[in-house]
Amino acid sequence: MKNTIITAKQKKRELLFILISFIIAFALNIYSIIYYDSQWKELITTLHITLLMTIAIYFLLAIIRLIFKGFAYLFNKNR
Amino acid sequence: MNKTEQQSRREFIRNVSLVTGTSFIASSLPWMNALANENPDQTLSPSDKIRIGIIGVGSRGSLLLLHMKNIPSIEIAAVCDNYSPHFDKAKEMTNNKAKAFVDYRKLLEIKDIDAVVIATPLNEHAHITINALQAGKHVFCEKSMARIPEDCLAMVNTHRETGKILQIGHQRMFNPKYIKAMEFISAGQLGNITQMRAFWHRNNDWRRVVPSPELEKKINWRLYKEFSCGLMTELASHQIQVANWALGEFPDKVMGAGSINYWKDGREVHDNVNLVYTYPGGTQLIYDSCTSNKYYGLEEQIMGPKGTMELEAGKMFSETPPPAPGIMHLINNIEHKVFDTIPLGGASWIPDTPSKNKGEYILDEDLEDDGTQLELEAFAYSVKNNIIDPEYIRQAYYASIAALLGFNAIEEEKVIAVPEKLKIV
Questions:
Q1: Is the Cβ pair A38, B323 closer than 8 Å?
Q2: Domain of A55?
Q3: Is A57's Cβ below 8 Å from some Cβ in B?
Q4: Engineering a disulfide at B198: which of A78, B66, B300, B423 sits with its beta carbon 3.0 to 4.6 angstroms away?
């Protein structure tokens, strides 16, 4: 059986994507507070929603990355 | 009831006093002063206790007896009932320590009884109360006050002439949930009250088991006009009192309709009633009660331009609820834009469907007390300290008058105004 090895580089890359996802979610929260003129304390009180959005964005990015990888694989195979 | 519950209710009452200041208590809840000042932990000598006789120990009377057994400042000195099963049960409940009577007049002859609690059928309230007050006893009488308005007035007059306390069993006036709600209403959280609705719906025949046919009217007295006005005096009077209390006015006229449309079992009182009470400022109370459907249960709804209160549920619904967090707003907007159907033509009318606002609880904690224990504690304190609260009796009086005139309006099929001779100050 072949061992699947997740390298340190891969781990770092995934952590970076999670961080990017969190920044996007947090930025969306800031945008909505400004746009809907709500309270700044929501940055803390709705942190759970920001974290859920982080997970959703991370999985969305993962799907996009998979699609890109799939295209790249097909492109390289045809060459 | 345990000591902790007792203390939390007292803490609540003291908090109402502190938060709202004495003016709210003095103007809206003067009867609460008694409770706010009472110390439940004090050890009482027998001379500090008030000695009470209970007249009428049926279902309500025995419940009051149980509550009173929990109040250190009360000694149940005597019980009275002319129905032998209730008489025996009452003696048993007091472990045969209380003197027992069949005739209430014998009980009133006992010199060292300070006060009586009356929980008899409605038509007996007036003469027993008047006799007791004239015999120098303070009186706690269950609602409604009497079977006819003139008897209610006679009770109030005797109370004022003798200087003895007369308290009527409107337990919602001592219910922490209601007190807090009145505090909010008084602070203007609903704006000026413009509309009130109250209802009490049940789905049962309202009958009690009768051991033999000749006892039918004695046991099921609530179903016969000679003894009671049925739904109006036994249920509606509670809710009319709440409406009066919330509005700070008493109704000056009533119209109504009612019938027996389901329980055609020989009863004389209506099994459904529908009324409109009009207050001097133009606000109306819409009231209905039925005994053939319980889906909506019971509720008192107080409405103003800023919000609605549902007092039985203990909830307040603002007309402008606090907005959802910005992020939720954003998500909802995206969701609507993606999934909502696109209308082909522009909507010319938006349906006024009920608000989906889930409201806020009036009290953070449920103290599990409908006010019965507190009203009895207040009565004991008032008797001990000879405190007479004129506003309390006005509340009780006008609730009874409104219930009785509502019954008359249904019977006579006309609008009835409160006659000048029945108005008290």
A1: yes
A2: 23-78
A3: no
A4: B300
Count of CB pairs separated by less than 8 Å, A with B: 38
Instruction: Set out the domains of chain B in order of their start, with CATH numbers.
Output: 3-173+369-387 (3.40.50.720), 176-321+355-367+400-422 (3.30.360.10)
Other beta carbons within 10 Å of B399: 30
Q: How far is B320 from chain A (nearest CA, A)?
A: 15
Alpha carbons within 13 angstroms on the beta-carbon side of residue B409 total 23
Residue A38 to residue B330, Cβ atoms within 8 A: no
Residue-wise pLDDT tens digits, B321-346: 878 888 898 888 888 888 877 666 66
Q: Does residue A3 lie in a domain region?
A: no
Asked if the C-beta of A51 comes within 8 angstroms of chain B's C-beta atoms, the answer is no
pTM: 0.82
What interface predicted TM-score (ipTM) does this complex get? 0.77
Tens of pLDDT, residues A39-76: 999 999 999 999 999 999 999 999 999 999 999 999 88
Q: Let me know the angle formed at the C-alpha of B327 by B335 and B316, rounded to the nearest 5 degrees.
A: 95
pLDDT for A2 equals 74
Q: Which tokens is B50 given?
A: 């008030």
Of A32, A37, A45, the CB nearest to B330: A32
DSSP B226: T
Say whether B328 and A45 touch across the interface (CB within 8 A). no
Residue A24 main-chain phi, psi, to 5 deg: -60, -45
Written as six digits, the tokens of B90 are 């009452």
What is chain A's mean pLDDT, rounded? 91
- Best mutation target, A22, A38, A54, to test chain B (most B CBs within 10 A): A38
**In terms of C-beta density within 10 A (0-12 exposed, 13-18 middle, 19 or more buried), how is residue B260 classed?**
middle
Residues of B in contact with A51 (CB under 8 A): none
